[in-house]
Design goal:
Layout lengths: L2 H13 L5 E4 L12 E5 L3 E8 L6 E4 L3 E4 L6 E4 L1 H16 L20 E7 L4 H6 L11 E3 L9 H9 L12 H11 L30 H9 L4 E6 L5 H14 L8 E5 L2 H13 L6 E5 H11 L11 H14 L10 E4 L7 H8 L8 E6 L27 E4 L1 E2 L4 H11 L19 E2 L8 E4 L3 H17 L8 E5 L2 H13 L4 E3 L13 E5 L8 E6 L12 H12 L2 E9 L12 E2 L1
Parallel strand pairs: 3-7, 7-8, 9-13, 9-14, 10-11, 10-12, 12-13, 15-16, 17-22, 17-23, 18-20, 18-21, 19-20, 21-22
Antiparallel strand pairs: 1-2, 2-3, 4-5, 5-6
Helix pairs in contact: 6-7, 9-10, 12-15, 13-14
Length: 593
């Protein structure tokens, strides 16, 4: 910001109430114009402001079309700043008027925007007296300008706000509803659009029909995504709070930003299917050459191979040996540190301390850009889930740079309540740890849905067959795509039973047992373990074998985490089947089928 823009931003924040929304220097609309400030209020409407830090002696001549200025001694002819603001405002309004839910449906202004809009100029170094004495009021209508002495800290809030609302030519319409506010943000800011399947963001087509329902980031998510700067940052969020979506926004932003660094951006996660999905998303966006999405162990394997280090032999300790080999090679400078412009870590709760310490060394010191996403309640790969180390001890400087996301948007209220029946103990708030991050209980967004279907059946085979019948009905009667459905299992034996039932009915399905088996774009029912489903989501999820959990010899809390992760993969419908009388099945009121 220039000094004048910064001063105006401070005044807007000080003098406007909390129900105002404000954006500074953010691309707007299909043509991505760059107004200085956009102000939105549910009752007042939409206002576009252009800001100029010119002194009076900078302006040589001013007309309603063009101004002649001499900044830094160089003569320039520029468009009238009011015309500049109006041009940007009209582009935005034209885009908004394409939405039938944002226009007036009857009366003399049919087809026009259903709420007021305006535009104006802020002259941060010219007083009102100077403005009038110089005749600038002949080039810009006086009520469409705020001058420097009208944006002082001592100015009354009501007087300052009145200056803004004098910029509106007409006052009409009622207050915008929350859905209308979301639709305005969806159209004005394509980068905050949310698409639950396929891609992290639905960029859309400027000329395509607008959808009936427009999902956008909430204001906290948008503010967080836009304001993430360099340095080390931690986002601590509950399941379904949009952590991966924000990671995708950040990766895309970094890939498109003009920087001096030619190094790639690395996105790391623990689960291989999530890495595959992220890579497919970045490929579809045309940025996979700059953003590399990898699961951690595959990244380690590539590091050893790329720098001529010996690969460990096959065996149960292979992955641990592979990581250790990378750590030692970095210590010996045989694998270079600082390889990446930025590193973004999803599922950070499943990374061991030594892994995080290794990864932090891979960030280019000149950018020092590291983003870590974390959720203790979903940590399912270590026996002791309570973090026994501080981020500082592994090189992550996160103090004062941690954001907590508490609202679960993915699941309906009914699905989240069902998941919490098993995992309630895991979601009990605890004291903050050394890095100031508490375990938080998720808050439901309040989205209603159908109650999960919970069925008591005689055997696992009956469970698998009943699930196959239900999914077939979802497709044939409900019109659900096969790829929108998943069966999440505790182990391979349950997966095999479900695969047999699906094959018997000739239902297209994809069984994920090995790396490379997961193909997110394939229109087939996904059959996988609960563990590798983490980070993914599906409209319909079936979980067989609930009555056999916890597995013999397994810790009940560990098994509860697995169930919680699996149940919260469902965005619309959850099906649980139970055979036998023990395990988690006893916690549900079941119905016989």
């Amino acid at each position: 910001m220039t000094s004048g823009e910064k001063r105006l931003a401070e005044r807007l924040e000080q003098k406007l109430d909390d129900d105002y929304l404000m954006w500074y220097d953010v691309p707007v609309g299909p043509k991505q114009s760059h107004p200085d400030f956009v102000i939105l209020h549910p009752r007042r409407g939409l206002l576009i402001l252009e800001t100029k830090d010119w002194r009076l002696d900078t302006i040589q001549r001013a007309t309603r079309q063009y101004w002649e200025i001499i900044p830094d001694g160089n003569h320039k002819v520029v468009i009238n700043p009011l015309a500049q603001a109006r041009h940007c405002a009209i582009q935005v309004v034209n885009a908004l008027e394409r939405d039938k839910q944002l226009i007036q449906g009857s009366g003399p202004h049919t087809g026009k925007l259903a709420f007021p809009w305006g535009h104006g100029v802020v002259l941060t170094r010219i007083t009102r007296k100077q403005f009038e004495a110089a005749g600038l009021d002949q080039a810009i209508e006086p009520h469409l300008v705020i001058c420097s002495d009208e944006m002082l800290e001592s100015v009354e809030e009501e007087a300052f706000q009145q200056r803004l609302w004098d910029m509106f030519p007409h006052a009409f319409g009622g207050a915008m509803s929350l859905p209308q506010l979301d639709r305005v943000r969806w159209i004005m800011f394509p980068e905050v659009r949310v698409h639950s399947q396929g891609t992290l963001f639905d960029d859309g087509d400027a000329e395509a029909d607008l959808p009936d329902v427009m999902q956008v980031m909430d204001l906290q998510q948008e503010q967080l995504a836009r304001s993430l700067g360099d340095g080390h940052r931690v986002i601590h969020g509950v399941a379904g709070s949009g952590k991966t979506m924000i990671l995708g926004y950040r990766a895309e932003y970094l890939a498109k930003a003009q920087t001096a660094s030619t190094k790639p951006i690395l996105v790391l996660c623990f689960n291989e299917p999530l890495a595959v999905k992220l890579d497919a998303t970045f490929t579809a966006k045309g940025i996979a050459d700059r953003v590399h999405a990898r699961n951690f162990h595959k990244w380690c394997w590539h590091q050893l191979k790329a720098y001529g280090q010996p690969l460990p032999a096959q065996g149960k300790d292979m992955f641990d040996q592979m990581v250790d080999s990378v750590i030692r090679a970095v210590e010996r400078n045989q694998i270079p540190s600082g390889q990446y412009q930025a590193i973004l870590i999803d599922e950070g709760h499943d990374f061991r301390p030594e892994w995080l310490k290794l990864v932090t060394q891979m960030v280019d010191p000149s950018t020092n850009s590291l983003l870590l996403l974390y959720d203790d309640a979903q940590s399912i790969y270590e026996r002791n889930r309570t973090r026994q180390f501080s981020f500082k001890s592994v090189g992550i400087q996160a103090q004062g740079r941690t954001t907590i996301l508490k609202i679960n948007y993915r699941n309906t209220k009914q699905i989240l309540q069902t998941a919490s029946l098993i995992a309630a103990d895991l979601l009990s708030p605890e004291d903050k740890d050394d890095d100031g991050i508490p375990i938080v209980r998720p808050i439901s967004y309040g989205r209603e849905g159908t109650a999960p279907l919970i069925m008591k059946l005689p055997s696992l085979r009956d469970e698998a067959e009943r699930i196959a019948d239900l999914l077939a009905d979802e497709h044939h009667s409900g019109g659900r795509a096969w790829g929108d459905m998943a069966i999440l299992c505790r182990d391979y034996s349950v997966m095999d039973a479900c695969s047999r039932a699906l094959s018997h009915r000739r239902l297209p399905h994809q069984v994920r047992k090995r790396s490379g088996d997961f193909r997110p774009a394939q229109d087939a029912i996904k059959v996988m373990t609960m563990k590798v489903s983490k980070g993914l989501e599906f409209p319909v999820v079936a979980i067989p074998g609930v009555g056999a959990m916890p597995m013999p010899g397994e810790d009940e809390k560990d098994e509860a985490r697995l169930f919680y992760v699996a149940a919260t993969r469902a965005t619309e419908r959850l099906v649980l089947t139970i055979s036998g009388d023990g395990g988690f099945g006893r916690r549900f009121d079941t119905v016989s089928v």
